[in-house]
Design a protein that fits this description.
The chain is of the alpha+beta class. It has one domain (about 10-110). It contains three helices and four strands. Strands 3-2-1-4 form a four-stranded antiparallel sheet, with helices on both faces. It is globular, with a radius of gyration of 14 Å. It starts with 9 loop residues before the first helix and ends in an 8-residue tail after the last helix. Bound molecules: zinc ion. Zinc ion binds near residues 34, 71, 73, 74 and 79.
Length: about 120
């Protein structure tokens, strides 16, 4: 069922849900996955504008009630030069996602003209 998901772990999805919950006008969550397993996440509006702050989360699962520690590599360079994958997380199942045209429009606004959706 989950075969199409590009996301590497459940914690990632949990964090996306949290962002969507905190920003009710967020239509999706833009993310960059780093080579160390950490990721950067930010809510995006239907106009492709960022909402709220850029969250930096570790690839390690969260321990209850503890803030996510980011890895040492990221503490040193904040990871922006080590992006291995970027995209947008759309909540719900595929029928609930925005049309492909709108998804691409938002993606290009967030990541630049080179944004595309792999199938
Ligand atoms: Zn890291």
């Amino acid at each position: 069922m989950e075969a199409n998901k590009k996301v590497p772990y459940n914690f990632f999805e949990e964090t996306c849900q949290k962002i969507l919950f905190e920003h009710l006008d967020a239509i999706g969550v833009a993310y960059k996955v780093l080579d160390c397993g950490c990721s950067l996440l930010c809510g995006v509006s239907a106009q492709g504008d960022p909402l709220g702050v850029l969250l930096h989360v570790s690839g390690q699962p969260l321990k209850k009630c503890k803030r996510t520690p980011i890895c040492l590599k990221c503490k040193l360079d904040n990871g922006l030069k080590r992006v291995v994958w970027e995209g947008i997380y759309w909540p719900g199942d595929e029928r609930e996602h925005p049309d492909k045209e709108l998804r691409l429009m938002i993606g290009r606004k967030v990541f630049g003209a080179g944004y595309f959706e792999p199938d």
